[in-house]
Design a protein that fits this description.
One of its GO terms (cellular component) is plasma membrane. The chain is 67% helix and 0% strand. It is mainly α.
Length: 324
């Protein structure tokens, strides 16, 4: 849909950003990590594994639904980027203007943060950040007070969105669209999961709480479907990089749905001795999936296995304890 979103879509924000002190830009380059895909999925996995009854009425259902919601958000991002296919700001293409006062050890990190390829609309970081932190605020409904959760979620999501503009890898329009898409997708995913607050059913006020009967499988499958559409759009447009991203979304969606079939939903929190090696193994699979992106079948298999393992892991102690 070329033309619906202009390649040059700045609103004057570049002039403001260019006037900021270098130390502010460096600080925002660090803030942007709060919505890196690896960070968000690690955060959500840890919440899913370790959350207790003090954080949600049904912590495993809440955690899996949060993962499914963010998977849907990334699928929507992949579809949007392939559909609109508009570039990032010129500053994202390089060369990077690295502050001379940065230590040599940080210069490479900073350059990696402020240079980015691929399409720019909507912002994946803004979309993923809005989705992840809103999902956490909504689903971990026994953590802090509602006001505290929502203010914290909004603060982090807005800080991440601002960081993408400050380091000049996105226009303001890109991050505003990302915030809107991420928030809307979360509400849609919760509706698919059966959240009574979104469906406006009486169960929302039940003693068991709104997370008691959540089923994340429909949201996982929707993410896979959206990613499949994104892959088709990307293939039609010849956008190889977006095909890989969409493929990872397909694998994540199907992997999540498969993993959830192995879980009852009422499992206790994981022990550290199970979670630490599991995090190392699944993390290695994720890294390998991206490192081997040139081989799409390998990437799909590695991603699927990693997501199945993450979602099914709470059931492992029960399976391991069964007599053979």
């Amino acid at each position: 849909m070329t033309g619906l979103v202009a390649a040059e879509r700045g609103l004057g924000e570049t002039a403001i950003v260019d006037a900021l002190p270098e130390v502010v830009v460096v600080a925002f380059a660090a803030v942007t990590h709060l919505a890196d895909p690896w960070f968000l999925f690690a955060l959500l996995a840890v919440g899913y594994w370790f959350a207790s009854d003090g954080t949600a009425g049904s912590p495993r259902r809440a955690g899996a639904t949060a993962i499914a919601a963010v998977t849907c958000a990334y699928a929507a991002t992949a579809l949007g980027k392939a559909w609109f296919a508009v570039p990032r700001p010129p500053g994202a293409m390089g060369p990077a203007d690295v502050p001379t006062w940065l230590p040599a050890l940080l210069s490479g990190w900073y350059e990696a943060q402020v240079l980015s390829d691929g399409f720019g609309f909507p912002s994946g970081h803004a979309t993923g950040g809005a989705a992840a932190y809103l999902a956490i605020a909504l689903l971990y409904d026994r953590l802090w007070t509602p006001k505290t959760r929502y203010v914290a979620a909004a603060g982090v999501a807005l800080a991440v969105a601002a960081s993408r503009v400050v380091i000049e890898v996105h226009y303001l329009v890109d991050v505003l669209a990302g915030l809107a898409v991420g928030s809307g997708v979360v509400l849609g995913a919760l509706w698919l999961a059966g959240d009574p607050r979104v469906r406006r059913s009486a169960a929302a006020t039940s003693p068991a709480g709104p997370t008691a009967d959540l089923d994340p499988a429909p949201a996982f499958l929707t993410a896979a479907g959206l990613s499949l559409v994104a892959a088709g759009v990307a293939l039609t447009g010849g956008h190889t990089g977006e095909v890989v991203e969409a493929g990872i979304g397909i694998a994540t969606g199907f992997g999540g749905a498969i993993g959830w079939r192995l879980v009852a939903g009422d499992e206790p929190p994981l022990s550290i001795r199970v979670a630490v090696p599991a995090l190392a193994v699944t993390g290695a699979l994720w890294v390998g999936a991206y490192a081997l992106a040139d081989s799409l079948p390998v990437t799909l298999v590695a991603t699927t296995v990693a997501v199945v393992a993450v979602v099914a892991l709470p059931a492992l102690p029960e399976y391991a304890g069964r007599p053979t």
